[in-house]
Amino acid sequence: MTPSPALAVQRAKGSTGFEAGAAGRIARMHPMTDDELAAGVEHFRETGWLLTQTLDEAGVAELQEWVDEVASWPDDGEGWMHHRELTDDGPKPCRSENIIPFHPGLRDLLTTGALLGTASALLGQQAVLYKEKVNYKLAGGAGYAPHQDAPAYPFIASHVSCMVAVDDATLENGCLEVVEGMYHDVLAMDDAGCIDPDLVASYEWKAVEVPAGWTLWFHSRTPHRSGPNDSPVPRRALYPTYNALAEGDLRADYYAEKLARFTAEGGRADGKVQVSLINDFQGRAV
């Protein structure tokens, strides 16, 4: 599965390693040349999204192991958060978050090296990690209604997010769809905090299939959505979000605010799983 060159910024051949923070484990990343990065920034400014290659085959295998490790953590852990949804096959994990304090490999992947460098280039200044999560979207898992991320992210106005594909993201298993060039403003919303249905119907949605090890970058105001996983295989993805360091290192503040709101609101009234500060997720509550 290889994206069209017209939709991707191809990274240079070869790879450089970074220490994963766990003995004997090194993930391999593809470096990006200055010219490729500049072309990527220009594409992002025009469209509000960008597709790049991040990990080679060995790096993908290691990332998959790391995500398996996170999924195996108990629910009553030291601060990470697990969320589950009800599928036709019973309860399944749908999201884990607040991960990096407890996993050195993922911490290094998200806070050093190519991902941080690309986020900084897209923001136009030094970036810092704002939040991180794994969306599992296992077979039968639900999708996400059309939305922008910005209304769910307090304290700062501009962020850049990305989806690092752990497994191939395809049309069948619910890849992301984006709207190009619509990231300049926060759009009108419905009561769930998602994009107004009349606007949704007026937009041209572009499905972006992402091979495992590639990364789909998008602005926090880029409209996006994803369908359910109608395939027999998972569509797991790692989602870090970055903000400009000049606005502050607000990761701890974000999770404190999220926990406070979840506690105060006591769950969604529509019988679906609350995983965000807006109600975009369509999974049924367990």
Short description:
The protein has 286 residues and is α+β, with helices and mostly antiparallel strands.
Uncertain segments of ≥5 residues (pLDDT<50)? 4-26
Strand-and-helix sequence, N→C?
Answer: EEHEHEEHHEEEEHEEEEH
Q: Care to count the β-strands?
A: 13
State the end-to-end CA separation. Answer: 34 Å
Overall structural class, as computed from helix and strand content, comes to alpha+beta
Share of helical residues: 10-25%
Strand share of the residues?
15-25%
Number of helices: 6
- State the strand order across the main sheet: 3-11-8-13-6-5-4
| Mean pLDDT across all amino acids | 89
Main sheet specs? 7 strands, antiparallel
Can you tell me the overall shape?
globular
**Radius of gyration of CA atoms, rounded to a whole number:** 18 Å
